[in-house]
Design goal:
389 residues, alpha/beta, Aspartate Aminotransferase, domain 1, Aspartate Aminotransferase, domain 2, 2 domains, seven-stranded mixed β-sheet, 13 helices, binds pyridoxal-5'-phosphate
């Protein structure tokens, strides 16, 4: 269903595919449809597109082409990073301790928890401050000789906060421990240079930056101990079996190119609208709080909690009023429990259940923000009157 009268303010959940990306992808469905592993000319054309896409992604993050692994999504990249390194590190040097932040996306946290519950690893959670940010000194204190991998989210999907990845990575490197960051949100908006971030592994997903859904990247620094989790053919440096999805890989590279070349220019525009949303919501709505850091956050991301407001009711009422937003992460919608992230930040239930995430995108216009800011306070009042506390 496409409804032009509904304003989309949920660009952290996904983005529309840029028409230039669609155009780049199209010939690889029905004209250059070869299997990149085939030796004939169809295969060579596909392989050329694959390797060119790899080069583009590698160049933008200052990596080598051989360090880029194409996957089927951000979640798969996170899974490969955690499972692949955890199993290799345990095998190679008996390391079975996994250190993650308590504000990871479920693709990281549920993977770590399964490694603990089914495979005997020990998962330890780092502390976060009131904004959901990890202190590098805490990483330093908790690292152990048997730590297999550390994973800290680059920019948080729910609350927008940006972690000091470069500093954390420096500490992990000095202690010889693999460091992964989930940059599925971050790579759409922030500089991603693997050497400045001091990372061994980075997860990226195309659909957050106007690329197709169902394709991602895991950057794997040369020399990182890692086993494949999808075994079969030798594709992707033996780390990810499966015939290459060339149209989607080409689409990811094109979208990344477009996102990388324009993100600095878009920043100011986003920040202006984001700050308008934050300031007006906090001013006009009683018992409202910003979640995440006020400035060290994604430029397009505003997130709130409202006391004694049911977040899902608010989303339904906003939808009826013509605004598509989210409460926390898209995956949380419909779940009556407060999110793990808001719980980790220590918010009581009567606050944490009333979360709202407003994320801006390339098509967002200032007048849409004005309309949203006019509609929201009344909706909150109505919900509070519906169930008086
Ligand atoms: C921070 C973060 N990590 C991982 C994912 C999962 O990515 P995908 O939907 O491509 O599997 C998302 C998607 O919302 C995300 O925001």
């Amino acid at each position: 269903m496409h409804n032009n009268s509904i304003i989309f303010l949920d660009f952290a959940s996904t983005t529309p595919v840029d028409p230039r990306v669609v155009e780049a992808m199209m010939p690889f469905f029905d004209q250059m449809y070869g299997n990149s592993s085939s030796t004939h000319q169809f295969g060579q054309l596909a392989e050329h597109a694959l390797e060119e896409s790899r080069r583009i992604v590698a160049d933008y993050i200052a990596a080598k082409s051989s360090e880029i692994v194409f996957t089927s999504c951000g979640s798969e990249s996170d899974n490969l990073a955690l499972r692949g390194v955890a199993f290799a590190e345990r095998d190679l040097r008996g390391a079975s301790h996994i250190l993650i932040s308590p504000v990871e996306h479920h693709a990281v946290s549920n993977t770590a928890i399964q490694l603990q519950e089914l495979h005997g690893f020990e998962v330890e959670f780092l502390a976060v401050d009131q904004y959901g940010i990890v202190d590098p000194d805490d990483v330093d204190r908790r690292l152990r000789p048997d730590t297999a991998i550390v994973s800290v989210i680059h920019a948080n999907n729910e609350i927008g906060s940006i972690n000091p990845i470069g500093e954390i990575g420096k500490i992990c490197r000095s202690r010889g421990v693999c460091f992964h960051t989930d940059s599925v949100q971050g790579a759409a908006h922030l500089p991603v240079n693997v050497d400045e971030l001091n990372v061994d592994l980075i997860s990226i997903g195309a659909h957050k930056f106007y690329g197709p859904k169902g394709v991602g990247v895991l950057y794997v620094r040369e020399g990182t101990p890692i086993y494949p989790i999808l075994t079969g053919g030798g594709q992707e440096q033996n780390l990810r079996a499966g015939t290459h999805n060339i149209p989607y890989i080409v689409g990811l590279a094109k979208a990344f190119e477009l996102a990388r070349s324009g993100y600095k220019a878009r920043h100011n525009n986003y920040i202006q609208m984001r700050d308008q949303v934050v300031n007006e919501v906090l001013e006009t709505i009683q018992d409202s709080k910003l979640t995440g850091h006020p400035t060290q956050r994604l430029p397009n991301h505003a997130s709130f909690i409202f006391k004694n407001v049911d977040g899902n009711t608010l989303l339904m009422m906003l939808d009826a009023a013509g605004y598509a937003c989210s409460s926390g992460s898209a995956c949380k919608t419909g779940d009556p429990e407060p999110s793990d992230v808001l719980t980790a930040l220590g918010y009581p239930r009567e606050w944490a259940l009333g979360s709202l995430r407003v994320t801006l995108g390339q098509p967002t216009k200032p007048e849409e923000i004005d309309g949203f800011l006019t509609a929201l306070p009344d909706l909150i009042t109505q919900i509070r009157e519906l169930v008086p506390h």
